[in-house]
Amino acid sequence: MPTSLYDTLQALYGLQQLDSQIARTRKSQAALDTGAAATENAAAARAEAEGKRTALHHLQGDLKDSELKLKGVEDKRKTYHDRLYKGGVTNPKELSNMEKEIAALGRQRADLDGRILELMDRVERAQSDLTAAEERAREADTRRADTVAAFRSRHDTLELELADLTRRRGEAALQIEDKALLKRYDDIRAKSGVGIAKIEDGSCGACHMSLPSGMIKAVKEYAEPQRCENCLRLLTT
Ligand SMILES: [Zn+2]
Question: Distance from the CA of 208 to the center of ligand 1, in angstroms?
């Protein structure tokens, strides 16, 4: 005995449930946060920390240079000072030049002391800037890793669900003997995702337009497939 039109339309309605579920699952999968933004943020935070590290190294280099210069100035000053006070120099002009030189070296030393103090202060601030930037980079990287892991896990779960739904959909479609009506359903569904609707309170369950009573009667008779006059979807009860 061939399957009645009622049974075929009910089977198509069952297929519609699977097709809608497949569409919803695909949509959920496409809407997942892939972690792209978190990855970008983590890269930016890393670059910022690198910039702070470079700045700190420059300042540390400047500080070391200034400390070496200071040592040079102090050594030179000590040499002059020792020569002056050991009494080896007796020429008054030479003595006067050496005193001037010692005074000039003293001013250089004072300038360098000031510069070193300033640099030490800046190194300290740069160090704490770097520590904070590294902490931000670590946090951003943790967020990136968490987001990417959550994406992969959820994506895989949805992928399994899709595989199962697609298999069930294929089996359900095979059960439908009226291939011409199945094709009509697929053609209508291709446009909007919905190929068949139930009559709900005298209206089309898809577009919600009120249906004429003659149409409702024709659907219930199941002699010929009926379509909603407004949205052209197949109708069943
Ligand atoms: Zn409709």
Answer: 6
Look up residue 202 and give its two tokens.
Answer: 């005298």
pLDDT tens, position by position, 119-151: 999 999 999 999 999 999 999 999 999 999 999
76-106 residue pLDDT tens: 999 998 888 887 778 889 889 989 999 999 9
- The ranges assigned to domains in the chain are 5-29+178-236, 35-151
Tell me the CA–centroid distance for residue 166 and ligand 1, in Å.
Answer: 26
Please tell me the distance between residue 228's alpha carbon and the centre of ligand 1 in angstroms: 5
pTM of the model: 0.79
Calpha distance 226→59 (Å, rounded): 82
**CA of residue 170 to ligand 1 center, whole Å:** 26
Residue 104 half-sphere exposure, CB side, CA atoms within 13 Å? 8
Which listed CATH number (2.40.50.140, 1.10.260.40, 1.10.10.60, 1.10.287.1700) goes with 35-151?
1.10.287.1700
